[in-house]
Design goal:
Blueprint lengths: L13 H18 L1 E5 H17 L5 H11 L2 H14 L8 E8 L6 E7 L4 H5 L24 H11 L1
Antiparallel strand pairs: 1-3, 2-3
Helix pairs in contact: 1-2, 1-4, 3-4
């Protein structure tokens, strides 16, 4: 029975899984987007998001905790100096998974996993106006200002 065993083991031993997730997390932090399988991306999301949350407060202890997970000082520096200031106001959800389809060789479902605030294409895309099928009121063209007779006579006297 698998009571209370909720995370995906990814068909690996604990040491292999920990090393793989650390390497993928380093690649994600350094490159801001990586391509992988959906199962690995979901496991990586659970691994990386607490590290990004930890990086919001730049203290010696939080740097040591993150370093114990990543074991790469360049990735830790990138996380604390570049990533953390950009996601400082976000309450969570630092990564996005975009499915790409299946891989040719083994038909595994592949996807992008990326840091949300670093994708310029998604951030700058304007929201399209909501279209409906109903034939409602058309937007009236901007009406020109209508002069009252008193304003018209005042304008004539000013010209003269």
């Amino acid at each position: 029975m698998r009571h209370n065993k909720k995370f995906n083991h990814l068909s690996r031993t604990a040491d292999h899984r920990r090393a793989m997730l650390a390497n993928m997390a380093i690649s994600l932090i350094m490159h801001k987007r990586i391509t992988t399988t959906v199962a690995k991306a979901k496991a990586l999301k659970k691994y990386v998001e607490p590290l990004v949350t930890r990086s919001k407060d730049d203290t010696t202890n939080s740097r040591r905790v993150v370093f114990s997970y990543l074991q790469n000082k360049y990735a830790v520096t990138e996380l604390f100096k570049v990533v953390a200031p950009k996601v400082g106001d976000r309450p969570g959800g630092y990564t996005r998974i975009i499915k790409l389809g299946t891989r040719q060789g083994d038909a595994a479902s592949v996807c992008f996993i990326e840091l949300v605030d670093f994708d310029e294409n998604m951030a700058k895309a304007p929201k399209a106006a909501k279209k409906t099928r109903r034939a409602g009121k058309k937007a009236a063209p901007k009406a020109e200002t209508v002069e009252t007779p008193a304003e018209a006579s005042a304008a004539e006297t000013a010209e003269a």
